[in-house]
Amino acid sequence: MKRFDDSKIMLLLLAFVLTLMLAATSANADFIFGNLQNLGPVINSSSGDAGICFSADSLELYFSSDRPGGYGYYDIWMTTRVTKSDPWGLPLNLGPAVNTPYAELCPSISSDGLTLYFSDDWMGSARPGGLGDGDLWVTTRPSVSDPWGTPSNLGAEINSLYQEGWPSISVDGLILFFCSGDSETAGGGPRPGGFGNGDIWMARRAAKDGDWSHTVNLEPLINSPADEASPSVSADGSTLYFDSARAGGFGNRDIWQAPILPTLDFNGDGIVDMKDFSKLAQHWLQNERLVDIAPPIGNGIVDIRDVAVLADYWLKEIGLIGHCELDETEGDIAHERINHRDGSLHAGPVWQPTGGKIDGALQLDGVDDYVSTPFVLNPADGAFSVFAWVKGVGGPGQVIISQQNGVNWLATDPFNFGWLITDLQASGRFGHSLFSQTVITDGNWHRVGLTWDGSKNRILYVDDVEAAKDTQAELVGSDGGLYFGAGKGLEAGSFWSGLIDDIKIYDRALTP
Residue 376's closest CA among 438, 334, 411, 413? Predict the structure, then answer.
């Protein structure tokens, strides 16, 4: 193993070794994409929104849109935020100095923020020497003061008989995202191996002066039967942005995002443990893509930043896909800190900044108060868990968490015993609710939960103790959002009376 001379680095590595010795988890090498998320109605409109780029600090977002209020067909708009964890502000048109009655597209801002590049049409002509209806090319220059050289075609690994466009390259220059498909030359439709008329693809190379290889389609999480285009990687390499005409948006094209998550099983043995940390250390200060995870798609050198990323992901709760802490002090938004699927308060629930089990909580009146959220997961898709702290004194049939167009996930029984139950069950005559026979409406705090292993076991928990268990072959599915504190249809009598705090949802079955 390479000897370390920096004592501070050595101390950090030793401390991290102790952390790694406490746990292990499953993962795969390289990186994966997290849950897809629409950027929401502040950015997206009922019109077409596409073609995005970011400032170097990720606090300015530029995109093209044909929404009302512009100067022509497609205009360039900009929105800002105070920090990377804050929501985006209302978009502003860049005005007539930039926009015209024609189409302004494909914005790209320089790293110093002083130069904005953009296109005046969807696609230029197919230059001679290409392989298809529109290819990707590259040109280089020795220095910023030298002229650009003669462009060369990126070759058959990238280009095809179909249209290729919208390239976006990673910080280390080793990963290329691009679009392909929908070519008249090739007869239209998707490039072979694609899912829609236009898909996003990815290619790799071993070095900046190497050839591109290993071109792959980003598959159904990113691509759909609709059209996906204009991939853009955030400056820190942690998020892939793109536009899509898929269903579920606000207009004919919307801008979406998916987190890029490093996976940490460097040696491919199915677990993350000391062997993986040792492999990272063996490549210290080298350009080794396998363990270069800072940002998640690498920056060309294995250093202290990769240790920090490994530590950060290690210390996070594994599988957590939704977390509403409910610690706000005012306003009608319940912030969700993992994927920003924020909830909206209805009918006036009251924040209790110091009255929760963990910091603050939300007080609901049992009459008409509730919270609604966007879609989080479909119970039919596989294993998941949900947990929440509650303090209630209500009557029968009150609901803690339910799914719109679905069923009640966590509720009290309809017979006024105060038992925790779930209505998530198999379809047909073999499905039935699960009753815990454990009282949760005694005016005390209780942590209630439900886990499903995706194929058989359904378990209810009260205060982290198994309260009921049975088997089901499946669970009924739903693609609706969630309600906190109300039944699936907002039925009278289903509203929770009491406090709710710290709701967590996982994409796997957990044992508390």
Answer: 334
Q: How far is 422 from 356, CA to CA, in rounded Å?
A: 24
Instruction: Convert the pLDDT of each residue in 143-184 to its tens digit.
Output: 767 777 787 888 888 888 888 888 888 767 778 888 888 766
Which residues face 468 on adjacent strands? 460
For residue 136, how many other CB atoms are within 10 A of its CB? 22
Please report the DSSP string for 382-439 in residue order. S-EEEEEEEEE---TT-EEEEETTS-EEEEE-TTSS-EEEE----SGGG---EEEEEE
In 105-264, which residue ranges form alpha helices assigned H by DSSP?
Answer: 219-222
Contact between residue 511 and residue 453 where contact means Cβ atoms under 8 Å apart: no
Rg (CA), the chain: 26
Q: Taking 50 as the threshold, does the pLDDT of residue 8 lie above it?
A: no
Q: What is the dihedral angle through the alpha carbons of 431, 432, 436, 439, rounded to the nearest 10 degrees?
A: 140
**Residue closest to 301 by CA, chosen among 214, 140, 174, 177:** 174
CA distances 36 to 86, 170, 259, Å, are 18, 20, 8
The two three-digit tokens of residue 484, written as one number:
């906190």
Of 506, 503, 493, 484, whose CA–CA distance to 344 is shortest? 484
> Hey, what CATH topology would domain 32-262 get?
Methylamine Dehydrogenase; Chain H (2.130.10)
pLDDT in tens, 88-126: 999 999 998 888 888 887 787 766 677 676 665 544 656
**Tokens standing for residue 511:** 């044992």
Cα gap 95→72, rounded to integer Å: 11
The one-character DSSP state at 262 is E
Q: Is 248 left (phi over 0), alpha (psi -120 to 50) or beta?
A: left
> For the chain, which residues make up each domain, given as ranges?
7-30+270-315, 32-262, 320-506
Rounded CA separation 36/39 (Å):
10
Burial call 329-344: b when 16+ CB within 10 Å, e when fewer: eeeeebbbebbebbbe
Range 320-506: architecture per CATH: Sandwich (2.60)
Amino acid at 438: T
- Answer whether residue 498 shows pLDDT above 50: yes
Between strands 75-80 and 60-65, the pairing is antiparallel
In this prediction the pTM is 0.58
- 425-462, pLDDT tens digit by residue? 998 888 999 999 999 999 999 999 999 998 899 999 99
How far is Cα 508 from Cα 512, in angstroms, rounded to an integer? 12
